[in-house]
Amino acid sequence: xxxxxxxxxxxxxxxxxxxxxxxxxxxxxxxxxxxxxxxxxxxxxxxxxxxxxxxxxxxxxxxxxxxxxxxxxxxxxxxxxxxxxxxxxxxxxxxxxxxxxxxxxxxxxxxxxxxxxxxxxxxxxxxxxxxxxxxxxxxxxxxxxxxxxxxxxxxxxxxxxxxxxxxxxxxxxxxxxxxxxxxxxxxxxxxxxxxxxxxxxxxxxxxxxxxxxxxxxxxxxxxxxxxxxxxxxxxxxxxxxxxxxxxxxxxxxxxxxxxxxxxxxxxxxxxxxxxxxxxxxxxxxxxxxxxxxxxxxxxxxxxxxxxxxxxxxxxxxxxxxxxxxxxxxxxxxxxxxxxxxxxxxxxxxxxxxxxxxxxxxxxxxxxxxxxxxxxxxxxxxxxxxxxxxxxxxxxxxxxxxxxxxxxxxxxxxxxxxxxxxxxxxxxxxxxxxxxxxxxxxxxxxxxxxxxxxxxxxxxxxxxxxxxxxxxxxxxxxxxxxxxxxxxxxxxxxxxxxxxxxxxxxxxxxxxxxxxxxxxxxxxxxxxxxxxxxxxxxxxxxxxxxxxxxxxxxx
Length: 554
Fold this sequence. Notes:
By secondary structure, this protein is mainly beta. The radius of gyration is 25 Å and the shape is globular.
């Protein structure tokens, strides 16, 4: 609490923006007081909430060399959003800083997860420490995993996740290997108190340089799953107009004793993205995007090939019978692909769709999965966002100080990487794989500056058969018929917090919740979290201050 005594600036005990209550069914926006951002700290995440409090995690880089010296757990009153307490948790162990992974929460208990490289044993150890009600770590260190490491620069990595009901925890030891060595890992499954249930070493028959892990998961029964992408040759998506990779899903059941390998490729289509979720019936629900042509070059990022997306693929894997259901390919219609495009672009798409050349057909591109909501009937709702990056060459020698500015090379030439976060698509898929409805939330955000990059993308929530997506948008779009693209700048008062709503029929509505000039902050979409059935928490920053906000849905 000591560090917070000096920087809390109380302006108001709580603020309710009155214009949001004009109609009975309108959401209500509440804001906290202003708080000064502690020096050299970054808010990492919204941890959790209970009936009385909300808990946030902040990282403190105020130590020598700006190393992460501690993490801070902040507790706020759920009703008033007033700060109750903030406790520093020092990361030193044996006079050496540990590597912080996360505050992990299962069954209402908080655990500090850190790793420590022991140079005498050439091992990297992962530990859990239970936090008490005052956020003080227990002296008892629970050993969760260890990795033999050649040196401190190659310590491997630990990943952690829990099942949907939080009764099971999985630790994935990502073991360092040389490029030509086969991929190695270890899976350990625990109960909610970190008592080990089973573990298993994994030796995949793929060279590390040709394998990319996409996702791992544990279900409520303690079965573990790993989805990966195996490239046949170099890490490129296609060769001779055919896929140069396969998706491989491995399922470890029966306390890790039973291993089943599923190759999820298609001979009929080019599956570009693929992801999965496990439901309560032991079914692995898989969905992805597909195309009929090879991906376009030059638009690649991370795990996903970025070619033209023609539609969505949907199928399931029965974890009991080991049967892969027949894949269903549902093509997006032209009306959906052309949503939010200009009249000129729509006419161009119509001509391409009718020119007889399938390779010229219009489609979507560069969409990443953000969330999958499993329907109780076996279907799913997929939420994805268009994201891509490109290089922008700047040849103006007089920008930011001219020829002598140290930020420029080659007499004023500079290359910036521009990140674009555009439309959000929501696709409701029936159990048979057909599309019940699909809609798109219009949005265009781009930036090459980290200070504004943090304010891009969106956060989402669900309530009463509706999906809510919150993001920053230009205020003038709600005040007139203004259109066009928007480049995020430092003019935060030009923006506000917008909310898009899609109901169970696919109907879309968008409204401005509050302008930044009224809130005094700009919201960070990565720090939006649903904390109750109809409550969404958000975090925003202004000029050296931050505020918490709460949206109550009606």
